[in-house]
Write a structure and sequence with these properties.
The complex is a heterodimer of chains A (1143) and B (369). Among the domains of chain A are: 152 residues, Calcium-transporting ATPase, cytoplasmic transduction domain A (Distorted Sandwich); 247 residues, no CATH class; 202 residues, HAD superfamily/HAD-like (Rossmann fold); 198 residues, Calcium-transporting ATPase, cytoplasmic domain N (3-Layer(aba) Sandwich), CATH 3.40.1110. In chain A, 47% of the residues lie in helices and 17% in strands. Chain A is built from 39 helices and 33 strands. In chain A, helix 3 packs antiparallel against helix 4, helix 13 runs antiparallel to helix 15 and helix 18 runs antiparallel to helix 19. Chain B has 2 domains: 56 residues; 242 residues, no CATH class. Helix content of chain B is 30%, strand content 19%. Chain B has a 4-stranded antiparallel β-sheet. Chain B has a 4-stranded antiparallel β-sheet with strand order 4-11-8-9, with no helix packed on it. In chain B, helix 2 runs antiparallel to helix 11. Chain B is extended and about 80 Å long. Chain B starts with a strand and ends with a helix. The chains are: A alpha+beta (1143), B alpha+beta (369). At the A-B interface, helix 10, helix 33, helix 34, helix 35 and helix 37 of A face strand 2, helix 2, helix 4, helix 8 and strand 10 of B. Chain A: Keywords: ATP-binding, Cell membrane, Endoplasmic reticulum, Endosome, Lipid transport, Magnesium, Membrane, Metal-binding, Nucleotide-binding, Phosphoprotein, Translocase, Transmembrane, Transmembrane helix, Transport. Chain A: This is Phospholipid-transporting ATPase. Chain A: It is found in: Cell membrane; Early endosome; Endoplasmic reticulum membrane; Membrane.
Chain lengths: 1143, 369
């Protein structure tokens, strides 16, 4: 895909134009300049890697880039060219098998990607051509086409809005799948186009495609009736982005300016790079060790061979003369050939089949994720989806989780929870209570039978109804499907008139709806008049005089209205911190308690205040505002100054609490992840306050968490330059969190008591880019490392106001930090795609915001809560399985080849194989492959329930614990020990080869067969001992393999095989079984090789099981006391009666 | 041996059918099947190795292995074996001259005889082996230098031996039968045994050459070509191996033991595992009466010395051995069994002590809680 993008870009760049020129509707314009229609990309999105044509060469190339595959190819070629002890088939067949299986797997996965691409590319769109609407497919859209998009459709490419169905030339879109903001944004048509698109002749000149979602510069030249063209400047407000969805507007027409891979959405993708798991890296490291062992073995043998041959009579005794060709060969060439032959002889030490088995394990194992019914979500009727099976085990290694907020942690549904009027609390409980308590007759009641005066109540509710920028959705028929913004509230509220609202912030809708619930209904804004329906079903009219817009610095907004009686009132709502200093102190005290409690409970709180303006005051304000608005310079500053001046000495009426509802079990999931030793970072494009409250609600931040904030707000706190302040803050936080903090031990679970100090870190996008840019200049990566160190000591980190690429930047930074921790990104929107692609593991949530994230993820799950099982159970098990698989493979091949190596010392270093070729080939393919495959698919060394109950078990395998050098050394030593035992055990038995009771002797093939039999039984039984979870499949496969070995050996030795040159094993196995001594030595050696394993298992289990039993007892004890276990605190908070008693 | 808990998790395999009842193709529900397999909830046996369960196993192993080991050791010790090196390296050895004056071209055989005394009588069947040392029958070039198809009597391979037989494939333009280095270096010393009883007359010990090769080799794997009674016709057009004195059809008078199915030849063709090896040469059948097969006393081994080994520092031996159910004399197995048995027993004791201590300690620690 990146290459494709580049090609697109180059194709344009060749024209060496800084701008692109688009002819609207492909109608030639009467301009003087000649326009050579430039070539643009088509509107195809390509995320697949291969096509039918390039699949074979490209796939083969990619596969042989793998060190192991390349190695086997070399071995195979050596076998073909050089006279080697084993035939090329022995390594060629498995290699062919590996390549084929992998190719099939990758082909299948690419086919899935093709299918997904097609879904997007074949999406039906309507294109206007010569005034006729023509149905077409999305991929056929060309730059310059006029495209018609209807409500709730997504834009198929980047469009310049030409015409909207709305009268005012606007349309609403949500860019949820682009940047995660689900509110409605207003876009404007290009002015003065006229209604007749057919006759529109115009060209658009705009900049070349670039990835910034919020930047667009262009110019439109409209030619009308052969007059001079009219110029219109185009900005981002005219550009509709691919991936955004049209809302609340019936139909729009737009002209395509960027298509396909040049759309801003596509440019915000990052190139798909093949993700490699940590296990694979370990495999490669082990592989190098074994390669070293292999080469040194071959070198030792070659050297010894020539030393040995230098003794007279050894090289070429009379009974064993060389062929003429051999005699003629150059000595050095012979040495080299010998070396290669030894390599081939010992090459089985690097298990070719391990790659097949690993591939198969991953491929088949991933089905268990897709099959898991716990991941099935009845709402969307889908389960988990596995896009890449390469990373199963990585799920068990995650150290950092980067999560999106909107739609991932939260449902993006705001709900009005409670309010506080004049210090009295009003809690909206559920529908039934509401009927009792809040009917239009009696007014709000609270359980403590205290309430504010009716006047205050109504004032508060009027303020809620008036102070906002909400619009009423006009469409008469209101179906639940389209109304996703407020759907969930509607079904709880038996409102007489169900109405939809549109607002830039979902909180506002929640507040308006909250007011509606208490009897005040906002009817809409008509020509500067706000209409509300009050409790007594009367319509009140207010003239809207001014809106003092919200901005993140003031963190409040106000409206100035004139009511029916001619009074002018300013209503203001905003964050507590920005309201409290502007109201009377005694009022604050009454409400502060509520606000603070609500905030810690994770609600978004807003305070509402008002101020009556005398006509004189208003006249002054009006004048000031108008003046500021007309200012040409520093308009923003001037406006702010006026705002600040007006919004003073207000009266605080009350506060509201709105909940952005968390995803199901979000807090438990986060808690489980933290319990598992995973650090959770929230990366969101959302506002800091919102994100912070979500973090509180998810228990990522807790009441005692000290927040370290590095945002524009803190950076601008004093009149210093931002850079200085940044430096200062970073050092301060670093001192606080890193230097002064006691060293954190990895094993300690976060305690509830909060005895040790918790830190939370907050950073916003602007500060981040400041930090990164300033660090690159002066002190490279100093800030970065400071930042990372601080973050490592924080329980949770919140990054807000992040652009999609910034999210990826953060992930990349952590990924490349010291110790290169394994990262996981989880998100649901297209704005998360880049971080999903960047992280080691990318998880997509099958949310509302389209399928971009899912398509680009490695795994997709319906809900956030599924992450817990995915990591704690599946990830842990997969890791253990594959780690064991890898270690076992190296082990079993070491003790397979070691006897063959030792045999060289007894056969004149002549590369004589100890085992028959059939055994050499079949050992890894048939005799020992199935049990380990079954193990690696079915093993549950700890039950799934236990894994889910004890998140700390996840730490047992953290940091790739089972593939560290120590376990590797253990397995290697075990392999060496057993290999030595097999060889020398049989060697001493063969000091007298007369092993049969009729005095007949055994030859070298019997020797090899005895060793091989011991080997097969030992490695299989070793696996059997490691198996903790014996399903019938394990039984079948383990005993079946052994039986198959015996059966095969009989069969292989039972027939004089036609077409085969050597009948080496003819009746060797049967004769072996006829010898009591062979039986005895086989039993003895098997037992002796397993003895250390048994001993270790006993000791390990002794400690392990005791510890685990204790753990289980504790957890089950805890479970009895608190049936909801870890969920309890959250539930307590949300539904408890505590809130009433506090007041 | 293992403490086990059979953990049959709830079996809900019977639900699996329900999803398919919805009608095939009508509506493909993506809901995963609720089968035990797919949900990874197959009933499973979960054995746990603990000291308590392994302990008895150790004792049992110890108790079984030690007697077996003792039995093996005694059996091996009871096997009578007599070995004599007749290479002729030392000047005073009887075959010194034969060894010294060996020449491939000499037509006459060199004879030498070695006297020896058996101190103990050999009861039951006695097996006579020849042993070679420093003879790399397991050298790769040597091992592969044969043509099994030719030896199986396949006509085409008789005329056209496999390339692997090089450089013993053709001789003077004719294909060699049997081809290859193994066949070419067939052990061709003739060993005969004479007994000197008390009264002084030299009695030949009857040596049976039947039954020294594997039955399957003799009857299936090795076959003479042509099937005709007259082997010399069957082998017409082939050359004898260069080092042989006689062609393959003159290995023995007995037609059942001639050509490729000559048992001495078959035994030789089964390449040895190690450079020092022995191969069965003759069997001295137990006499029907009660006298021992070989009574103690003086014997003489008469050797037709044809086989040179000095060039590669080799040794030749003649071994007389009785055989038990475990084969020839080999104390290794007995000792190994006794050792392993003792180790297991010892480990059992150690584990018992540890286990006992550990248990009491953990018990006492848990009581205050």
């Amino acid at each position: 895909m990146p290459r494709k993008t580049l090609k697109c870009l180059f194709g344009v760049d060749e024209g060496s134009r800084a701008n692109r020129k688009v002819v609207v509707g492909h109608r030639p314009c009467p301009s003087n300049e000649e326009i050579i229609p430039p070539k643009f990309c088509d509107n195809r999105i390509v995320s697949s890697k291969y096509t039918v044509w390039n699949f074979l060469p490209k796939n083969l190339f990619e596969q042989f880039r793998r060190i192991a595959n390349f190695y086997f190819l070399i071995i195979f070629l050596v076998q073909v060219i050089v006279d080697t002890p084993t035939s090329p088939v022995t390594s060629g067949l498995p290699l062919f098998f590996v390549i084929t299986v992998t190719a099939i797997k990758q082909g299948y996965e690419d086919w899935l990607r093709h299918k997904a691409d097609n879904e997007v590319n074949k999406y039906k769109v309507t294109v206007l051509e010569d005034g006729k609407a023509i149905q077409s497919e999305s991929e056929k859209i060309k730059v310059g086409d006029i495209v018609k998009v209807e409500e709730n459709e997504t834009f198929p490419c980047d469009l310049i809005l030409l015409q909207s169905h709305r009268d005012d030339g606007t349309c609403f879109v949500t860019t949820a799948s682009l940047d995660g903001e689900s509110n409605h944004k207003t876009h404007y048509t290009v002015p003065n186009i006229g209604s007749d698109l057919e006759s529109l002749t115009a060209t658009i000149e705009c900049e070349q495609p670039q990835s910034d979602l919020y930047k667009f510069v262009g110019r439109m030249d409209i030619y009308k009736d052969s007059q001079e063209p009219i110029f219109r400047s185009l900005g981002p407000e005219n550009l509709l982005l691919k991936g955004a969805t049209l809302k609340n507007t019936k139909v729009i027409y737009g002209v395509a300016v960027y298509t396909g891979m040049e759309t801003k959405m596509a440019l915000n993708y990052q190139g798909k790079s093949q993700k490699r798991s940590a296990v694979e890296k370990s495999i490669n490291a082990f592989l190098l060790i074994y390669l070293f062992i292999l080469v040194s073995k071959a070198l030792v043998c070659t050297t010894l061979k020539y030393v040995w041959q230098s003794k007279p009579g050894q090289d070429e005794p009379w009974y064993n003369e060389k062929t003429q060709r051999e005699k003629d060969t150059n000595l050095y060439l012979k040495m080299f050939t010998d070396f290669l032959s030894f390599m081939v002889l010992f090459n089985f030490i690097i298990p070719v089949s391990m790659y097949v088995t690993v591939e198969m394990q991953k491929f088949l194992g991933s089905f268990f994720i897709a099959w898991d019914k716990d991941f099935f979500d009845p709402e969307i009727k889908e389960g988990a989806l596995v896009n890449t099976s390469d990373l199963n085990e990585e799920l068990g290694q995650v150290e950092y989780v980067f999560t999106d907020k909107t739609g991932t942690l939260t449902q993006n549904n705001m709900e009005f929870i409670e309010c506080c009027i004049d210090g009295f609390q009003y809690k909206h409980r559920d529908a039934r209570d509401e009927l009792d308590g809040f009917c239009d007759t009696d007014g709000p009641v609270n359980k403590v039978q205290q309430k504010a005066g009716r006047e205050k109540e109504e004032l508060f509710l009027r303020a809620l109804c008036l102070c906002h920028t909400v619009q009423v959705k006009e469409s008469a028929e209101q179906d639940g499907l389209t109304d996703q913004v407020d759907g969930s509230i509607l079904d709880e509220t038996p409102s007489p008139e169900e109405r939809g609202f549109i607002a830039s912030s979902p909180d506002e809708i929640a507040l308006v709806k909250g007011a509606m619930r208490y009897g005040f209904t906002f009817l809409g804004l008509e020509s500067k008049t706000l209409k509300i329906l009050n409790r007594s079903k009367e319509v009140e009219m207010y003239e809207l005089l001014h809106v003092l817009n919200f901005d993140p610095v003031r963190r409040r907004m106000s409206v100035i209205v004139r009511n029916g009686s001619g009074e002018t009132v300013l209503y203001c709502k905003g964050a507590d911190s920005s309201i409290f200093p502007r109201v009377k102190r005694e009022e604050v005290e009454r409400i502060r308690l509520h606000v603070e409690r609500n905030a810690t409970e994770g609600y978004r709180t807003l305070c509402v205040a008002y101020k009556r303006l005398s006509p004189e005051e208003y006249a002054q304000v009006d004048e000031d505002l108008k003046e500021a608005r007309l200012a040409l310079q520093d308009r923003e500053e001037k406006l702010t100054a006026v705002y600040n001046q007006v919004e003073t000495e207000m009266d605080l009426i009350g506060a509201t609490a709105v909940e952005d509802r968390l995803q199901e079990e979000a807090a438990e999931t986060m808690e489980a992840l933290q319990g598992a030793g995973i650090k959770v970072w929230v990366l969101t494009g959302d506002k800091m306050e919102t994100a912070k409250s979500t973090c509180y609600a998810c228990r990522l931040f807790q009441r005692n968490t000290e927040l370290l904030e590095l945002t524009l707000r803190t950076l601008e706190a004093r009149g210093r330059s931002r850079e200085e302040r940044l430096h200062e803050l970073l050092l301060e936080y670093h001192k606080k969190a890193v230097q002064d903090a006691p060293p954190v031990k990895a094993g300690i679970t976060r305690s509830w008591s909060g005895a040790n100090h918790d830190y939370g870190f907050i950073i916003d996008g602007a500060s981040l880019s400041l930090m990164l840019s300033s660090s690159s200049e002066s002190k490279p990566s100093l800030y970065e490392s400071l930042f990372l160190q601080i973050c490592q000591n924080c329980t949770a980190v919140l990054c807000c106001r992040m652009a999609p690429l910034q999210k990826a930047q953060i992930v990349k930074m952590v990924k490349n930090s010291k110790g290169s921790p394994i990262t996981l990104s989880i998100g649901d929107g297209a704005n998360d795609v880049s971080m999903i692609l960047e992280a080691h593991v990318g998880i997509g949530i099958k949310g509302k915001e389209g399928r971009q994230a899912v398509r680009n993820s490695d795994y997709a799950i319906p809900k956030l809560k599924h992450l817990k099982k995915l990591l704690l159970a599946h990830g842990h098990l997969y890791y253990v399985r594959i780690a064991h698989l890898v270690q076992y493979f190296f082990y079993k091949n070491l003790c397979f080849i070691l006897p063959q190596f030792l045999y060289q010392f007894f056969c004149g270093y002549s590369q004589q194989p100890l085992y028959d070729a059939a055994y050499l080939t079949m050992y890894n393919i048939c005799f020992t492959s199935m049990p380990i495959l079954a193990y690696s698919l079915l093993e549950q060394h700890i039950g799934i329930e236990d894994l889910l109950d004890n998140a700390t078990l996840y730490r047992d395998v953290a940091k790739n614990a089972m593939l560290q050098w120590l376990p590797f050394l253990y397995w290697t030593l075990l392999g060496v020990f057993q290999g030595l035992l097999f060889f020398f055990g049989v060697r001493y038995l063969f000091s007298n080869p007369a092993l049969q009771d009729n005095g007949q002797v055994f030859g070298n093939w019997s020797y090899g067969t005895i060793v091989f039999t011991v080997l097969v039984f030992t490695v299989t039984l070793k696996l059997a001992m490691d198996t903790r979870h014996w399903t019938w499949i394990n039984h079948f496969v383990i005993w079946g393999s052994l039986a198959f070995y015996v059966f095969f050996s009989f069969f292989w030795g039972g027939i004089i095989w036609p077409f085969i040159r050597h009948q080496r094993l003819y009746f060797v196995f049967a004769n072996m079984l006829g010898s009591v001594s062979a039986w005895l030595v086989i039993i003895l050696l098997i037992l002796l090789s397993l003895l250390p394993e048994i001993l270790l298992a006993v000791f390990r289990k002794n400690h392990g099981s005791h510890a685990r039993q204790k753990k289980l007892v504790e957890s089950s004890g805890g479970g009895l006391e608190f049936p909801g276990s870890s969920a309890r605190p959250l539930l307590m908070r949300t539904f408890s009666d505590e809130s009433h008693t506090v007041t | 041996m293992m403490a086990s808990s059979y953990n049959a998790k709830e079996e809900d395999g019977h639900h699996s059918g329900s999803s398919s009842h919805g009608g095939p193709g009508a509506m493909k529900s993506k809901k995963p099947d609720n089968t035990a397999f797919k949900q990874q909830r197959l009933p499973a046996w979960q054995p746990i190795l603990t000291a308590g369960t392994v302990l008895p196993a150790f004792f049992v192993i110890g108790l079984i292995f030690i007697p077996i080991g003792i039995g093996l050791f005694v059996t091996s010790n009871n096997i009578k074996e007599f070995e004599i090196d007749y290479t002729g390296v030392e000047v005073d050895s009887p075959c010194y001259n034969c060894a010294k004056n060996f020449s491939w071209n000499s037509t006459s055989s060199c004879l030498c005889s070695v006297n020896f005394t058996l101190d103990q009588p050999f009861e039951s069947n006695v097996y006579m082996y020849y042993g070679l040392s420093n003879f790399y029958q397991n050298h790769r070039r040597y091992v592969k230098s044969r043509d099994d198809s030719q030896l199986n009597g396949v006509e085409s391979n008789l005329r056209q031996p496999s390339k692997e037989c090089e450089p013993y494939r053709t001789s003077e333009g004719l294909p060699i039968a049997p081809c290859g280095a193994i066949a070419n270096s067939l052990f061709n010393d003739t060993l005969t045994l004479y007994y000197y009883p008390q009264n002084g007359t030299k009695l030949p010990v009857p040596l049976t050459k039947k039954g020294i090769a594997w039955w399957t080799d003799k009857h299936v794997k090795f076959r003479n070509p042509g099937g005709s009674a007259n082997l010399s016709i069957a082998f017409q057009g082939t050359a004898k191996p260069v080092n042989w004195r006689n062609p393959v059809y003159q290995l023995d008078e007995d037609p059942e033991n001639n050509g490729f199915i000559n048992e001495d030849f078959i035994v030789w063709m089964r390449t040895a595992a190690l450079p020092t090896f022995r191969k069965l040469y003759r069997i001295i059948q137990k006499k029907p009466n009660t006298t021992p097969t070989l009574s103690s006393g003086k014997y003489v081994l008469e050797i037709t010395y044809n086989y040179p080994v000095l060039s590669f520092d080799g040794r030749k031996r003649m071994i007389l051995s009785t055989i038990s159910w475990m084969g020839g004399k080999n104390p290794f197995l007995g000792i190994a069994y006794i050792t392993v048995g003792s180790i297991c027993f010892f480990l059992g004791v150690v584990l018992l002590i540890i286990h006992h201590k550990y248990d009491t300690r953990s018990n006492s620690a848990e009581i205050p809680n």
